[in-house]
């Protein structure tokens, strides 16, 4: 049995879609379909029920899924162990982080990193979704939500404060009512799939009845909406330095979030992983006065 056939099988089983699986794998739908058919032929049983709404596992498929995930765990562990053996900072490193941390913090600092480590190719995966370090979806992650499970090495590398902001024009045209900062005003909010984020949980907890003008899936679109005068939004303070925004609720009345640098424990000794981790900690986070840890300020 070919491990690559199991990879294709796992992708279809997890997405329930040939289209999504082929996109995730970077392969054509015909290739994915062919590899699934070859796996079914080698096993001698159907693994999926094909339906116009998607691919559904048969009983045999459910059993194969259980074993395939055990194989995958073993292969991933081997890959992590091999990657952790390197002693020189050369190769590809996959960093998972959010759009705003990538565009406003990491990428502007990369010329210095490239000059120092020309042998490292950095692959940046931007999403608010948590990349699975256990499955090598990324090698290292910069997050504002601390992971709670997994064989991970976690470092607290930054401290991020938040405020509620509006454009100067919007705040002047919509004065607060009844002594409430959000009274008579609209808010820009996160969608349900991002309800776990600190800004989303704060807004839902502190202002559950506020009027919503727009729901978005990224901080960049929220900032653009505030800039356009559509309403107020919870924004990290370091992102508003060059904006003509007005603080409606200051950070002292808000919340703050820690920034965590996360790597898989098996990769902690890797020279290229360590090089990026140390660079992000010292050159990116601690050199930014709005993000450095309070004890180092």
Automatic annotation (TrEMBL):
Keyword Cytoplasm assigned: no
InterPro entries assigned: LTTR (IPR050176), LysR_HTH_N (IPR000847), LysR_subst-bd (IPR005119), WH-like_DNA-bd_sf (IPR036388), WH_DNA-bd_sf (IPR036390)
Domain HTH lysR-type: 1-58
GO molecular function: DNA binding; DNA-binding transcription factor activity
Keywords, alphabetical: DNA-binding, Transcription, Transcription regulation
PANTHER family: TRANSCRIPTIONAL REGULATOR, TRANSCRIPTIONAL REGULATORY PROTEIN
Family classification: Belongs to the LysR transcriptional regulatory family.
Name by which UniProt lists this protein: DNA-binding transcriptional regulator, LysR family
Species whose genome carries this gene: Bosea lupini
């Amino acid at each position: 049995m070919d491990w690559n056939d199991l990879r294709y099988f796992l992708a279809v089983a997890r997405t329930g879609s040939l289209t999504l699986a082929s996109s995730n794998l970077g392969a054509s739908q015909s290739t994915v379909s062919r590899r699934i058919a070859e796996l079914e032929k080698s096993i001698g049983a159907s693994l999926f029920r094909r339906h116009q709404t998607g691919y559904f596992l048969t009983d045999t498929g459910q059993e194969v899924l259980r074993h395939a995930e055990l194989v995958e765990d073993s292969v991933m562990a081997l890959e992590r162990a091999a990657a952790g053996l390197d002693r020189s900072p050369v190769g590809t490193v996959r960093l998972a982080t959010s759009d705003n941390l990538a565009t406003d913090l990491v990428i502007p600092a990369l010329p210095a990193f490239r000059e120092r480590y020309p042998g490292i190719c950095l692959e940046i995966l931007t999403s608010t979704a948590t990349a699975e370090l256990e499955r090598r979806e990324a090698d290292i992650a910069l997050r504002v939500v601390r992971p709670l499970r997994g064989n991970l090495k976690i470092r607290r590398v930054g401290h991020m404060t938040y405020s509620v902001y509006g454009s100067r024009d919007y705040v002047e045209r919509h004065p607060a009512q009844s002594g409430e900062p959000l009274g008579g005003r609209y808010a820009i909010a996160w969608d349900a799939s991002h309800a776990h984020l600190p800004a989303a949980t704060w807004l839902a907890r502190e202002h559950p009845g506020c009027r919503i003008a727009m729901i978005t899936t990224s901080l960049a679109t929220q900032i653009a909406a505030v800039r356009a005068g559509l309403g107020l939004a919870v924004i990290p303070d370091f992102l508003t330095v060059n904006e003509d925004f007005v603080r409606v609720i200051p950070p002292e009345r808000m919340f703050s979030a820690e920034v965590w640098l996360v790597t898989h424990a098996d990769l902690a000794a890797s020279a290229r992983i360590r090089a990026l981790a140390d660079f992000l900690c010292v050159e990116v986070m601690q050199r930014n006065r709005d993000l450095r840890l309070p004890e180092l300020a």
